[in-house]
Amino acid sequence: MTDHIASLKSSKHKFSLNWGYLNAITSGMSAIDLSSLALRNLHDARQFAREYGFDLDQPATVARIRRGHREAVAFIAANFLAEGDVHLIPAEVRLADDPLQLLVYASQRAEPPESLRMWSCAVLKVMHGIFYIDSDLKLRHFNTIREQVFASLDEVIHKDGDEYFLTDGEVCLPLLHYDKKSHKGRNSILLKLLQKAAYLAADIYDHLGVRLTFATRFECLLALHTLQRAHVLSVTNVEPQRTRNTLLDLDAAKQVFIKYRTLLDRSGRYPAELLQTMDAELMALSQPQTRSDNQHSGSGFSSLQVTLRKMIHLHGEESAADPEGRDVDFFFEYEIQLMDRDSHERSLSGPASHEAYKRRQVEAARIRVFGRELLDWIASQQAVTPA
Questions:
Q1: Which of 23, 161, 352, 375 lies in disulfide reach of 301, CB 3.0 to 4.6 Å?
Q2: Which residues touch 172 (CB under 8 Å, ≥6 apart)?
Q3: Domain count of the chain?
Q4: Could you list the residue range(s) of the whole structural domain that residue 85 is in?
Q5: pTM over 0.85
Q6: Residue 383: is it exposed, middle or buried by C-beta count within 10 angstroms (0-12/13-18/19+)?
Q7: Are residues 199 and 346 in the same domain?
Q8: Residue 235 sits in a domain of what CATH number?
Q9: Are 117 and 90 in contact, with CB atoms under 8 Å apart?
Q10: CA distances from 143 to 147, 148, 208, 353 (A)
Q11: Is residue 129 part of a domain?
Q12: What count of other Cβ atoms lies within 10 Å of the Cβ of residue 145?
């Protein structure tokens, strides 16, 4: 039996506290915003990796860590560095024989060269995101999820020749564009993770989704009503904190609808011209809508974006997460986005375009991964390197 004697003394090291690391834990700081770790040696690094979830006695686990390291270095070089600047990553980090050594480098704030700590931190942050993606059970069953989500949408979105229509069996609205996002690429998922405070793959809500574009904003409102009548969209399956509305002023829309309701009822053919008239009045009455929590959306980007929860069912062998092979059910979030013609056209160029959005997204992720200290170091190295 081992006797334990209370003590604050250490025979090997001067007693101290890592205030920065402790502050990060107690204040809820994201791992991606740390500038260093608090490990003393490779033994600590192995303990850290074990608690992270890696059994280093398993060759497959070691191979997985090495793959994650290679992918992280390649991701940084492709997304965050200018062409030809990969040499700025120290060889000890870029070509590490043992990626666990990066954990030690990332903890050596007081030891030169500082570049080892800064670059190790950057690579480890990206590796952390990669491991979260690879460990997300929902992504492992993505094909089944996609089939079940789109099966519901296919019931209300019909194709006739080259044209698409949204219908609940009674109302039938013509679509200008029907864009289906059937999978978010690995690179895009990782970029999004690196911007998010929560830093979890489970918090990526737009793996799957559709964008429905109509001629007018008023038709977007009617589409919302149609989706609700078809029970694709209901109060119980909407993720309320994820609703982004920069498109529709419901108070103004109600005024316009009441004014023109009788004319709508009397319409024979599809009332395209009447809807355009209603839309013009809606725009004149509307107040700017700013319900959006996406800091990277450009000015002028207008849409109504709703995140929905869909219960997914895994059956038999597919539900391997259950040791007895029983069916497994879980919720998966996907997005429906509504836009009118003018908003869609603005999204094709300028600040509201997808390309501009991605550039802002990449820059935000770059700043978080590198941190101001490493960004300044990179700038200083580029300044002394001949063009």
A1: 352
A2: 165, 166
A3: 2
A4: 19-135+370-384
A5: no
A6: exposed
A7: yes
A8: 3.30.460.10
A9: no
A10: 6, 9, 11, 29
A11: yes
A12: 20
